[in-house]
Amino acid sequence: MSFAAAKSFLVPGGASSQAAAVDEQVRQQNLAVAQGLKRQEAGLVDELIVKYQHRLMRYLLYLTGNREQAEDLFQDVWMRVLVRGAQFNGQARFETWLFTIARNMVIDQRRKRTASSLDELFEVGSDDDRPLGFEVADGEPTPFDRVSNFEDREHIAKALLDLDTLHREVLVLRFYEELSLEEIAKVTKSHLSTVKSRLYRGLAMIRPRMERSGLRLREAV
Which residues neighbour 190 within 8 Å (Cβ) at sequence distance 6 or greater? Predict the structure, then answer.
């Protein structure tokens, strides 16, 4: 245990005070982004693209299963952020709002193809012959990255693609993007109980493959 960690146990309220300080810092950052978007602050969207581009592309790849669609949607999502930035109020994390926009745009794109159900809206496209290539590196290790090597991550990516999109999406948002269950509920516009159900069912479906790779994510739920 580090000195800082030990100190948090020795000082009454130390750990909770540190957590509160981090939460407040995040809140102030989100409010600053919201104010900057409202003022159409020069260069802000470019900074956000640099910060979130890898996470957004990874999410779109897993959501669509189609690289060409993901690349097109990636551009459209940032254009939507530029045009509707004033709608972000800073009460939630920016990435929660960003992923919500991305998800809505995927649904809108699918609706144009006259799909009749949410599963059909998220049906994986088959008209792109290029490999998906889910290694979207951004220099920041995800929970999957911290417990697995390259071969394991490739194995997990393929296992996720075998899931239906609704369960896959929750697992990606939880373990790759590290969103809380409450944040996932906001992105997917689902009840918290629905998110939990999809998470546990998705884990149950993918766990056999993960255990064969020696990975355990139960602690991260």
Answer: 184, 198
Distance CA 11, CA 8 (A): 5
Contacts of 120 (CB under 8 A, 6+ apart): 110
CATH hierarchy code of domain 16-125: 1.10.1740.10
CATH of domain 141-221: 1.10.10.10
**Single pTM value for the model:** 0.72
| Distance separating alpha carbons of residues 20 and 25, to the nearest angstrom | 9
CA proximity to 136, closest of 114, 111, 157: 157
Residue pair 165/122 in contact (Cβ under 8 Å)? The answer is: yes
DSSP 186-201: HHHT--HHHHHHHHHH
CA 149 – CA 64 distance, rounded (Å): 25
Highest mean pLDDT (candidates 5-9, 13-17, 25-29, 153-157): 25-29
Cβ contact 185:195 at 8 Å: yes
